[in-house]
Design the sequence.
């Protein structure tokens, strides 16, 4: 239900090592956002403000 | 092969649309899939996003097959931030809505790490019941009734690098990569 976010390189594929991750295309700057039932405008506003910190 | 394709085609025609065309079937999925498409579209034209992976977008390598098989494309959007791992971490740290967590089972709650670095656990942290240690910051988004069921969920399905706090030995003891990660983040 709620939105979840993760960095697959760190949270799911760390054990593959840098080469293993490169082989399957998991980059270190990859984000996986599982969008939940929150209002889409709220979600987008949140994403936009967070992108200003990049 | 041809027969199989015909069968698939026939299945597709008979199948009730699951998502947006009839939200009464599952309003939740409908909402997620609508939001997923919308966010994916907007991200793909954002200057700080280098790539968006979403099967509903034509840029996705498997878009054609997804389109043929699905009536909606779900709520999971993957994308690459313009920058390195730390730029990505800053982005995630500054989000306020989503929990930072991979799923680790249907009912075991969610465990993730708060990518802290110098910036601390991030604004989304404490308000959500984040449990932090100085060196090893973690978030437990406890959607669960009892700590015991959370623990058992973790022990059985948390990825091995998700070592918990020192007291949580069941998982921590088998975590060979914890130290490696810790070093990276120190």
Sequence:
């Amino acid at each position: 239900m709620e939105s979840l976010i993760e960095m697959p390189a760190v949270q799911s594929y760390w054990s593959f090592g840098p080469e293993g991750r490169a082989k399957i295309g998991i980059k270190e700057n990859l984000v996986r956002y599982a969008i939940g039932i929150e209002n889409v405008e709220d979600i987008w506003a949140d994403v936009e403000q967070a992108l200003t910190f990049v | 092969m041809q027969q199989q394709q015909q069968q698939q085609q026939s299945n597709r025609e008979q199948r009730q649309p699951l998502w947006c065309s009839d939200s009464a079937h599952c309003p939740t999925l409908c909402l997620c899939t609508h939001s997923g498409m919308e966010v994916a579209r907007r991200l793909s034209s954002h200057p700080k996003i280098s790539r968006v992976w979403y099967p509903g977008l034509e840029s996705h390598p498997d878009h054609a097959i997804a389109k043929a098989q699905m009536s909606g494309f779900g709520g999971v959007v993957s994308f690459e931030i313009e920058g390195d791992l730390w730029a990505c971490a800053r982005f995630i740290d500054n989000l306020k809505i989503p929990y930072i967590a991979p799923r680790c089972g249907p009912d075991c709650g969610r465990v993730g790490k708060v990518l802290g670095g110098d910036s601390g656990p991030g604004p989304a942290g404490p308000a959500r019941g984040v449990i932090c240690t100085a060196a090893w910051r973690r978030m437990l988004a406890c959607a669960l009734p009892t700590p015991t069921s959370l623990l058992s969920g973790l022990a059985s399905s948390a990825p091995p690098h998700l070592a918990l706090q020192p007291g949580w030995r069941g998982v921590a003891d088998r975590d060979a990569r914890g130290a490696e990660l810790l070093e990276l983040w120190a």
Notes: Chain B touches chain A through 52 residues (CB under 8 Å). The radius of gyration of chain B is 20 Å. Residues 86 and 105 of chain B are 28 Å apart (CA to CA). Chain B has a mean pLDDT of 60.
